[in-house]
Model the fold of this input.
Amino acid sequence: MRKPLLLLTALAAAPLAAQMPPPKPGDAPSPTEIVTAAPKADWAAIDPKDLLVMDLAPDDKGRARRVVIQLLPPPFSQGWIGNIRKLAAAHWWDGLAVVRVQDNYVTQWGDPDGEDKAKARALPKGLVEVPQSEYASEANQRSICGAPRSNDETYCVQAEPGIVFATDDLKLDIYANSVGFDHGWPIAFGDQKSWPVHCYGMVGVGRDMPPSTGTGAELYTVIGHAPRQLDRNIALVGRIIDGMEFMSSLPRGHGPLGFYDLAQGDERVPIVSVRLATDLASDKTLPAYEYLSTESASFAKYADARANRRDPFYIRPAGGADVCNVPVPVRRVKP
Done:
């Protein structure tokens, strides 16, 4: 049996929610209140061996900018993730830069001279070429519950440990036959395959035109509306669980596709280092992380609240949610 795995992006703070009055007795709790009240047993630890830590150069006020990426678990994208581990071990990204920031799309980082063979930084030995077939993985046959829901029923059916499917809260998905969560990750299913989806904060592999699938040396993260058309066209390898604000708030590039154009006054953001968390054992500033288990009763309540807001600010429940609109909460914990 596969060990229950990790999770997703940090729970976004809602500025308006902070201005709302506290709920009155009988008011339905908000998603944030449900997450805050979730018992310790409903949280699952994220293994440090699956964390990639990127330190950008400090901002103009000298403040540190650390980005923590959680890598996808098996069976997803393991060829590219193996390459990424080798790249981090070789310190390949050190001294490179964020090269592209396209509004409402992606922030991308890697070698600014990557297109110039004479100037490009040499890749470490041992990287593999991953086939396009690895964009999706074989999925076991699973049945999705279609029974009417009552207040005592969960919002989904658990087909095997760690894998849940939404029935009522997640509406029909135009990009896949069904969607759900696999050990905390948003996943789509169809044609006996399963694959991770391009939600906000997900991290993918930049590539050239097909048949190229990229090595993992060029990475990007989604900073806008979920570009689900990229699903199964580009490899996803993980997601940002801490420091997303440093990637989404960077100046936009003025070149084609948002690439930084130095001739137009753009300045690239330098990368100081990229390391696996297990190589930073002596760094006491790196916290441990937990995610709200998608198998838990708290997550079922949270997903329902995300799809049907009943707290005082809202007038009318939406009646459903896109899978990307149910970000799995992550929190820092003391090691």
